[in-house]
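Title: Request for sanity check on Hydrolase prediction

Description:
We are preparing a figure and want to confirm that the structure record we downloaded matches what your pipeline produces today. Could someone re-run it with the sequence below and paste the raw structure tokens into this thread? We only need the token string, no images.
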Amino acid sequence: MRGSSLICLIAFVVGFSPSANAQTDNTLFPLPAQSDTVAWPTQGWPVGEPLSVVQSVRLNAVLDPVFTTEIGDGLGETRAIVIIRGGEIIYERYRPGFNAETRHISWSVAKSITSALVGRAVQSGLIASIDDPMPGPFAADDPRSDISWRHWLQMLDGLDYVELEATGLSDSDVIQMNYGPGRFDSMAYARANFPPAHIPGEHWNYSTLGFHVIGRALQSLLPGTCLDPDEDPRLCNADPTVMSDWIDTVLFRPLGMNGVEEYDAAGTLQGGSQFYLSARDYAKFGLLHLRDGLWDGEMLLPVGWVDFVRRNPGTSDNNGYGGGFWPALENPDNPETVFTPPYDAFYAGGREGQLIWIVPSRDLIFVRVGIMPDSSENWNALFKLAQDAGAAVMP
């Protein structure tokens, strides 16, 4: 595990530093290194040794049932499960009609991907510090323009925005933004709505809006983004091909991922909800984080970044969210909690049970994609499924 002084020294060079009030790094389980004998899966996943008979029996007992249920039943329609241990595929299974090339919608797993794109921008020098104000879609004299990258990433922006607490479609701001009056220009909709309600950094509030805004902020850093070069980058209609090329260059291509992303009609990346990747590609994204941002000899994320995104920032009303990922803690304040150890896991999760479950102590990644009825009970059951599958394949 790195010493905190080394993290701060290197992080200063790349413009990233852990929060001053964050937990110390020795509270996090160390992220395991890739074995020198295991190839990186840029061009294709290496396959591990076959499971033993005992391991196969245990794992099939855990996973066979989830491939028989349908959309309205329990965990719903599981379309793919991929398990990576030690950087190698040890289990891969698809429902009929789906395969290793099928792309699946990310829903809120997109937030983790957008977070990694911020890390790539820090690593490359596009962002000097995540504690700087983020160049969002707000005018310079708008107080929302002072909210930092860090607070947007941690969902501590403080805006008057309703998502998890919505009682129906009409009062759900994410529905109105993505599918209602905001669907053609989510940033114009953001400017006209969602005023500050709290001091940034003091109140946690789950927000797809925030990661759409982050996506647009990243676009504003790239030359040639505005379709009209004379227009204010905060207000312009964006050319999505510029952002798409950048995402491919800094993330998809280095990892060998074949992903696509979605933009609204004004050209804004839908960074909170709309990426499409195969189950194998989601596993590659998980491996990047399990390996602490290192990929085949190159650091793609700043030193300390993965610890930042997997750590609860410690605000009094935060139910566990980090900076794009969730720590898998046994947390009675979170209705979707983890009851099965080990508790060092962290995960990217999306609507209907999209899951990248990363367990450093087991050097393991569990990916599930499909359609699951969203309820706390189902999410708790999905977390248990991931933990039980991990236990089944251990020696």
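Thanks, this matches our download. The two ends are 24 Å apart (CA to CA).
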